[in-house]
Amino acid sequence: LPTGVRGSAGPAAPRRAELAKAKPKSPFRERKFPLGAARPHPAVISPQDPTLLIGSSLVATCTVSPDFPLKAEDLYWTLNGRRLPAASYAALGPSTLSVALARLNGSRQQSGDNLVCHSRDGGILAGSCLYVGLPPEKPVNITCWSKNMKDLTCKWVPGTEGETFLHTNYTLKYKRRWYGQDNTCQEYHTAGTYSCHIPKDLALFTPYEIWVEASNRLGVAVSDVVMLDILDVGEPPGGADLAGRGRAGLGAAGNGRYGSPSSSPPGSWCGAGSARSSAASRQRSREAPGAGTGFPTARFPRDSHVFLGQDDGVDVLGV
């Protein structure tokens, strides 16, 4: 290059050196680490991601790694982006700063509240998620129905405050009443947020126990057990909205039918008449459809829907 060009770059070099000297050095660049080595975390918060009841108090600590030249006086805390007052801090050592939180409210979001330790210049050193809430409340008002007497869909009403602050998982379980093992429903949200569908493998003339378990970080709550026979449930005529219709009958009385416990819709094939079928009648019906009902024992096509009921007090066998 021409001499003049080389000479023009000369004065800029001292200026760059002066600017580099004047620029404040980041504490994170003070120490060099071997190529490929894992870089240590700047700091650690303890406890990490705690779960607490509403109204609890907490003392958290932020301890800076020895690899970073930061002292306790170089730190501050934020909760959900809001700087916490210095009066709540205490230096527990040269590089450890604590913060005291009293009478905690429920978490603002189910993913947890963000408690963050910062360096003086605003850099994030470490963080912890606070999960503050209540144990789950037991689900109530379980409602079940079947479209073809081969499947079963159930809905329930969750507890109120139990899932307001913490994420709550719901699991619907069922089993044959006397000799079955617990089964877990797999197809959720099929008829709304709090629902599950059992598509097959349900036995006729067999009572089932059904219940819902609610769980979150603070515990587990189990609903009352509902007992029903798939022959006692059905879809309301005309495909009417199920919300509220079956809840009184199934949730309060546990009888697996729509309508109130004391009165079922007139003419309903899954109504009160079927509910009053005796245990002996059910046992006979397991042996052979029609046995003990005044009808001769008969064979029906594989896909037929067979049910027992009453018409004006007289046992009726329907197909």
Walk me through what this model shows.
This protein is mainly beta and 319 residues long. It folds into three domains: 41-133, Immunoglobulins (Immunoglobulin-like), CATH 2.60.40; 140-267, Immunoglobulins (Immunoglobulin-like, Sandwich); 277-319, no CATH class. The chain has five helices and 20 strands. The protein has helices spanning 3-9, 12-22, 245-252, 272-275, 279-287; strands at 43-46, 51-53, 58-64, 75-79, 82-83, 89-93, 96-101, 113-119, 124-133, 140-145, 152-157, 169-176, 183-184, 187-188, 195-198, 207-216, 219-222, 226-229, 307-311, 314-318. The strands form five sheets. It has a five-stranded mixed beta sheet, with no helix packed on it. Strands 12, 13, 16, 17 and 18 form a five-stranded antiparallel beta sheet that branches. The protein is elongated.
Rg over CA atoms, rounded to whole Å, is 34 Å
Estimate nothing, just give the exact number of structural domains: 3
Please state roughly what percent of the residues sit in beta strands, choosing from under 5%, 5-15%, 15-25%, 25-35%, 35-45% or over 45%.
25-35%
- How many E-type strands? 20
The CATH superfamily of the largest domain is Immunoglobulins
Helix content: 10-25%
**How are helices and strands ordered from N to C?**
HHEEEEEEEEEEEEEEEEEEHHHEE
Order of strands across the biggest sheet? Answer: 2-9-8-4-5
Q: Tell me, what's the shape?
A: elongated
Q: How many alpha or pi helices?
A: 5
Report how far the terminal alpha carbons are from each other: 102 Å
Give me the secondary-structure category. mainly beta
Ranges with pLDDT <50 over ≥5 residues? Answer: 1-9, 12-16, 19-31, 240-319
CATH structural fold name of the largest domain: Immunoglobulin-like
Q: Architecture of the largest domain in CATH?
A: Sandwich
Major sheet description: 5 strands, mixed
Return the CATH class of the largest domain: Mainly Beta
> Overall pLDDT, averaged?
70
Organism: Cyanistes caeruleus (Eurasian blue tit)
InterPro entries: FN3_dom, FN3_sf, Growth/epo_recpt_lig-bind, Ig-like_dom, Ig-like_dom_sf, Ig-like_fold
Keywords: Disulfide bond, Glycoprotein, Immunoglobulin domain, Phosphoprotein, Receptor, Repeat, Signal
Pfam families: EpoR_lig-bind
